[in-house]
Write a structure and sequence with these properties.
RibonucZ/Hydroxyglut_hydro; metal ion binding; binds zinc ion; six-stranded mixed sheet; Metallo-beta-lactamase, Chain A; Hydroxyacylglutathione hydrolase; alpha/beta; 9 helices; hydrolase; globular
Length: 267
C-alpha cells in the first residue's frame, strides 16, 4: 500500500511525500526546501525515486537540485524529475503536458494543465487503485481548501476553467494542495456567505484541527464543492454578495469569479 505524509516547510507549505511502506521507495511533490525532506527520508530510511513539480515558484522548486545531489551521492541512482514542459526549471528531465499519463510507485498519475496562478501550472491526479483506496489530486497553488491561488500570470477565465477541471474529479478525491491557508480562506468564505451553515461547521472543525497542530489537508473534492467560494460562483446568494461588495451589478459566473478574486486580494 502507498501512503502520503506531509513534510512541513517554510511558514505554511506542505511538501507531500508519497511512500511505499514495503519497498521504502518514495516520491516527493514540490520540494521548495531540501532540508526537511532530507531529514524525513533519512529518518524513515526511504529511497527517493522521483520528484513531481507543479509550477516554477521558488517555494516549490528550490530544493530540487540539492535533493538530486543528495540522492546521487547516497545511491548513485538517477532520480526522475517530472514537471511542466516549456519552463525555466532546468532540473526537469520528464516534461509533461495535458493528458499525459505516468506510472510511479506502481500507481498511475494523469496530468492536467491548469494555468491561472502561473501559466505553467500542472496538476497530478491518481485514480483509486489496489495501492490506494481513494483517488488523489496534487494541485499545487491552483486549488486551495476553501480558496484558490492568486492570479500572478493567468487570467480569471483561465483560472476558472482550471478550477472547474479539478472540481470535476470524483467527489471522494483527496485534495493535496501546498499551503495551510484553510482557516484564512474560510474566514473570507464566511465574509462572502455569512449565513452558510456548512461553511460555519467546517470552519469549526478546521479550528479544532489547527489547535492541535494537525493539517486541515487533505480536503476532498466533495468538501470543496460545498465550502470553496471560488467553486460556487454560479450560486445566486454568492453573486448577490459579490455584487453588494463590488457595488456593481455582476453578470455571469466568470464576472462573479473575477470580482470575487479581486475581493480576496484585498481581504
Ligand atoms: Zn505558487
Amino acid at each position: 500500500m502507498l501512503s502520503i505524509y506531509p513534510i512541513k516547510a517554510f511558514q505554511d507549505n506542505y511538501i507531500w511525500c508519497i511512500q511505499n511502506n514495503q519497498s521504502n521507495d518514495c516520491v516527493i511533490v514540490d520540494p521548495g526546501d531540501e532540508k526537511p525532506v532530507i531529514d524525513y527520508i533519512t529518518n524513515n530510511h526511504l529511497t527517493l525515486k522521483a520528484i513531481l513539480i507543479t509550477h516554477h515558484h521558488y517555494d516549490h522548486v528550490d530544493g530540487v537540485a540539492p535533493l538530486l545531489t543528495y540522492a546521487e551521492q547516497l545511491s548513485g541512482s538517477k532520480v526522475d524529475v517530472f514537471g511542466p514542459a516549456n519552463n525555466r526549471i532546468k532540473a526537469i528531465n520528464k516534461p509533461l503536458r495535458e493528458g499525459d499519463h505516468i506510472a510511479l510507485l506502481g500507481t498511475e498519475f494523469m496530468i492536467n494543465e491548469v494555468p491561472g496562478h502561473t501559466l505553467d501550472h500542472i496538476s497530478y491526479f491518481s485514480p483509486q487503485d489496489p495501492l490506494h483506496s481513494a483517488p488523489w489530486l496534487f494541485c499545487g497553488d491552483t486549488l486551495f481548501s476553501a480558496g484558490c491561488g492568486r492570479l500572478f500570470e493567468g487570467s480569471p477565465a483561465q483560472m476558472l476553467k482550471s478550477l472547474k477541471t479539478l472540481a470535476s474529479y470524483p467527489p471522494v478525491t483527496e485534495v493535496y494542495c501546498t499551503h495551510e491557508y484553510t482557516l484564512a480562506n474560510l474566514s473570507f468564505a464566511q465574509a462572502v456567505l455569512p449565513s452558510d451553515a456548512t461553511i460555519k461547521d467546517y470552519t469549526n472543525a478546521c479550528k479544532i484541527k489547527r489547535k492541535s497542530n494537525q493539517p486541515t489537508l487533505p480536503s476532498t473534492i466533495a468538501t470543496e464543492r460545498h465550502i470553496n467560494p471560488f467553486l460556487l460562483c454560479a450560486r445566486d446568494d454568492l453573486q448577490s454578495s459579490v455584487a453588494q461588495h463590488a457595488q456593481t451589478a455582476v453578470g455571469d459566473e466568470l464576472d462573479t469569479f473575477t470580482h470575487l478574486r479581486a475581493w480576496k486580494d484585498s481581504f
